[in-house]
Amino acid sequence: MKNVRHDLDSGNIKKLYLIYGEEEYLKKNIKNQFIKTITGDKENMNCSLFEGKNTELKEVMNMCDTLPFFSERRLVLMENTGVLKKADDKFSEYIKNGIPDTTCLVIIESEMDKRSKIYKTIKSSGYACECAHPKAAELTKWILGMLGKEGKNITKPVMEYFLALSGNDMEKIAVELEKLFCYTLEKDVIEKEDIDAICSPEINGKIFAMIDAMGEKKQKETLELYYDLINTREAPLKILYMISRQFNIMLQVKELVSQGYSSKDIAGKLSMSPFVIGGAVKQCRNFSFKAIRKAVNDAIDTEEAIKNGRLEEKTGVEMLLIRFSRKA
After folding, report:
1. Alpha-carbon gap, residue 214 to 299, rounded angstroms
2. Nearest to 127, CA basis, from 102, 113, 106
3. How many CB atoms lie within 10 A of CB 266?
């Protein structure tokens, strides 16, 4: 990431960049920086965007070979085309030796197989930058910077609470922060009550509440939270993945607690927010080792049954939740 920004700031721009990963906010930010630095305007005739699955590599190469109009450089952007999965030797050779000095080709994708030949070619011929969701410490630093620009403060526990609810998606966090800034216009310090009043709980927050309800054997509340997520068009398999992930965290936390580690030590060891770990420690009190392991295994079995067509998605996850929250 720093290397890309250094190239843009210094003007020492390479002919080829691959920007990939799950963090849309970072990818969008880098894309806009390329546009601003090279052409100054998205509508400039020296900026060409190829988007979507119908992109033809031949058209991309033809555009790269086109000289810029009254400018030193042409910017060619390929965004979410997926064509690298079927890139042939001709395109590999082109990006290795054929891109003219007057062109900067930027390829933006959500997924990339690092074992593929095309990835290795791009990495050796240009620069590959992965945009992954940042860790809690990096997010905290970024959020504090945004708060500082607005003249706002926040306590550490409230920051941890905000991160636990909003997740680690920077675009989602940016939206929630903007809502908070508008809501707390007359305040200098953002409080937990402000977050509860204005922020939309991320799926993480509802999964957290769902597992709380399971531990307390509140079956009705567990299912209501599940239906809420379904009504907001969350995919049952995604919900299942998040439940499984939380039980896996709990399994690690329970093991580390049994070894005498504090919540703070566990947060550092697992590179997670202390608020998330503190919540997992509390949740573990309602589940034995055996119950947590069974939950993890049952979630795996349910996912397999759904993917093999033996269970319908929504019903399969619902049945699992009923078992998890059933009173002994």
Report:
1. 14
2. 106
3. 22
Instruction: Kindly report, residue by residue over 35-73, the tens digit of the pLDDT.
Output: 999 887 656 788 999 998 888 889 999 999 999 988 889
The residue to which tokens 């995604």 are assigned: 238
Cβ-based burial of 30 (10 A; exposed 0-12, middle 13-18, buried ≥19): buried
Q: What is d(CA 317, CA 301) in angstroms, rounded to the nearest whole number?
A: 11
C-alpha span between 191 and 188 (Å, rounded): 10
Q: Token pair for residue 214?
A: 């399971």
Residue corresponding to tokens 């000095």: 101
pLDDT digits (tens, 9 = 90+) for 117-164: 889 999 999 999 999 888 878 888 999 999 999 999 999 889 888 887
204: amino acid identity, one letter: N
On whether the CB atoms of residues 235 and 313 are closer than 8 A, the answer is yes
Place of tokens 């009504």: 231
pTM of the model: 0.68
- 3-state SS, residue 222: helix
Task: Identify residue 171 by its one-letter amino acid code.
Answer: E
